[in-house]
Fold this sequence. Notes:
Strands 1-2 form a two-stranded antiparallel ribbon. It contains 9 helices and 2 strands, in the order ααββααααααα. The chain is globular. By secondary structure, the protein is mostly helical. It comes from Bosea psychrotolerans.
Amino acid sequence: MSFLHPRFLVPLAxxxxxxxxxxxxxxxxxxxxxxxxxxxxxVPGDPATPxxxxxxxxxxxxxxxxxxxxxxxxxxxxxxxxxxxxxxRRLAVALAASVVLxxxxxxxxxxxxxxxxxxxxxxxxxxxxxxxxSGHAFLSAVTLLSIAGFIGLAARREDITRLCxxxxxxxxxxxxxxxxYLGVHWPTDVLAGWCLGVAWSSVxxxxxxxxxxxxxxxxxxxxLAR
Length: 226
């Protein structure tokens, strides 16, 4: 694949974008649009109240829950077991290992960078760790894009791959937006999480997935036939 191919350039650019944002945050740089976007989602003059009806706030909490350790963990276990039972055992192991390692890296980055959560609005969801990068944004991108990529490798069909990636991105964006709406993340936390997640999942699928796709049932059958 050419180095100018989007499949190479996009994750590379995403990786550099994350590093740039991380260095700016560590150096103490702040972004004016962070505050403006957070306040834009609150009732003017009442930063404790999110915009929209009560059901919207509940829907945002539900979406945020899908990006939690429990939500993403359940998705990872389900996808890994499915791949395993279908005969793609190396893909199953690669998926589980990628998500677990990403979870450890997310925790480590939060501890090292230590950015404070938004303090200009009331939080409408509980938080227990630092703000940068958004673990929900990072881990949802890693998990969902890796699942989509590995399913694409197993299915060997571009239409299925595109469908899975499209659905994955729809949920990734909604989860990231929910974190800003709930007031628990700055927009740059979410953006950084997305960038790192894109880079991570791309490497996982390219280096782990494609090499381990040889474990597919069809591939094993071909080897046995020889």
